[in-house]
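fwd from M.: "can u put these together and see what the complex looks like"

so here's what she sent:
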Amino acid sequence: MKISRDEVLKIARMTRVALHDNEIDPLAKQLEQVLTYAERITEITTDVEEPSNKNVNVFREDVVKRQSPEPILAQAPEEESSFFVVPAILENS
Amino acid sequence: MDKLAFASVATIRSLIASGEITAAEAVEFFLRRFEAHDPQLHSALEIFDKDSILAQTEACGDLIGIPGLIKDNISMNGRQLSCASKILKGFRATYDASAIQRLKANGAPLIGRANMDEFAMGSSTESSAYAKTKNPWDITRAPGGSSGGSAAAVAAGLVPWALGSDTGGSVRQPAALCGIVGMKPTYGLVSRYGLVAYGSSLDQIGIFTRSVRDNAEILSAIAGHDLRDSSSLRVDKKDYTTKLTGDLPAELRIGVVGNAVDAEGMDGEIAAAIQTAVGEFEKLGAKVKTVQIPSIDYAAAAYFIISRAEAASNLARFDGVRYGARDKKADTLTAMYTNTRHDGFGSQVKERIMVGNYVLSAGHAKEYYDHAKIARRVIRRDFLETFRDVHMLIMPTHPVPAFKLGSFEMNKLQLDLQDYFTCAMNLAGLPAIALPCGMTKGKLPIGFQLVGPHLSEGVLYQIAHAYEQQTPWKDIHPEGF
C-alpha cells in the first residue's frame, strides 16, 4: 500500500484542510501505515444478516418551540443582524 | 477531612446526612484537592468556582455534595466545551447534555472539565491541544486515553467520580492504566444527546470511579431512555446497586477469551495477573472455560475504518462559520474553511478524518468501508453466539502497562493499536467494565475487563463487585496524593 503526495493532497482537498508542504510526506507515511494495517479487513468475506431491530428510525411529533437565536449567534466568529457572515462566495461583477 | 479524598460515594453521603460536613464543605474540599495536586497532574482543563457550581445543582437528590469531573466533550450549559481542540477555543455549550441534566437533577456538583485527547481521538491524552495529563502512579507516564484527565483525577483522589466517553476503549483503557473502575455501558443505554460526536455508532458515555458500587450509583443516575437521542434504548431508569451482595450469580459460567489473552505483544505480567483474577472467580464458585472468538482479531481494523469514516463526517461541522476559531485573513470561503481546519485541528485529528475520507471515497469504499461493516456484523454475531455458552467474558484491556509520555511519537500505529482489546465491544454495542487486578513489579496498575451481553450492566456490576470484595486493589492508591 503506497500513498503518493498527490493522493494526500486530493484527500486533503476532500477533507477541506490546507496542508503545508512539510506536512505532506509525514502524513503520507501515517496514512500508509494505518491503511496497510486496515487492509486485513478484506480477509473477512462471509457476511451475516443484520438483526432487524437495528438502525430503526425513531419518529417524533414535529413541534415548533420558540428559541432565542442570541446564545447561538453570540458564538459566531462574525455575525451581522442575525446572520452568520462568511467571505464572499460569488465575485462582484 | 483528609479521609474524604479517597472516600466512597456512600461515605460522603452519610457524612453529609449526619451533619458532620455540609455539601458545600465537601465541594470545597475537592476544589482544594485540585488546587493542591492538579498543577502537577493536569487532569482538568478548568475547575469552576464554588458558587457557580452550587448554583447549578439541585438542592436535593442522591448525589448532593458528591462532585464529579466531566470530560470536555460533554455539554454543560454556559460552560466552555473545547474537546481539547483549538478549533473550539472559547466555545460555550448552550444546553446541558441529557446525562448532565440528570446528574444536576440528582444534586451532583459538577466541578470542572477533564482533559482528553483532542476530539477523543487517542489513547494517551497527549493529543490535547492544551495540556499533557500525567499518570498519578508515575508522573513520567501517560494516564491512557482518550479520557485520561477523568481517569487521573479519580485515581489521585481529586474527585470521587468522573464521566468520560468510550468510542474504542477511551474509558476502559485509561481506567486500567490508572488502576480504577471504568464502565462502558451498552450502546444506547446512556443518551448521547450533548456528547460531541466522534464515531456516532460507537460512542457511549462511560463512568470512572474507584469502586464498583460508586460506579453503579452514577450509572443509576444517568442511564435510561431519552427522546432526544434516536439511538437511545427504551430502557427504564433503574437502581444498578441492588445486586451488589458480594456473591456471584448462581451457576455462573465465565469464558476467558483465549485468542485475546494469548495475543502477540501481550505483556507477561498482565497475562499473569489476569490468570490470577480467573482463579479468584473460580474460588468464588464460577465455572471458567477458555473460549475462542477469532473474528475479534479483525476488530481493530474494522474500528479504524468505521470510526475514522464517521469522524470525517461528524467533524465536517467545524468549519469556522458558526462557532469556534476562524481564519479571519482568508479572502475566499474555501480558503477560510481549509485554513481554519488546518490551524484548528491537531495532527492526529487531521490524520483520522483524512483516513475516513479515503476509506469512504469512490475508489476505496468497497475494499475498506464495506468490508468493515461485514466484519462488524460477524464480530457481533460471534459474541452473541459465545454468550449462549457462557454468561460473561474476561478479556485484557491493555497490552502494556502505563507507558512513558512520548513513547509512541515515532510509531503512531502502535499507539492506535492500544484499542486492540477494547474496540470490539464498541463494534458490537456490548457493555464492558474495566477492573483493577494487580500491580506490576514497577508499581503500575494492571486491569482487565468483564464483558457481558447487551443490557447486562446489573449482573456485570454484581460479578465485578463480588470479585472486588476478594481483592485489595480498590484500597490501594498512588502515593503523594
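replying to her w this: Residues 21-38 of chain A form the longest helix (18 residues).
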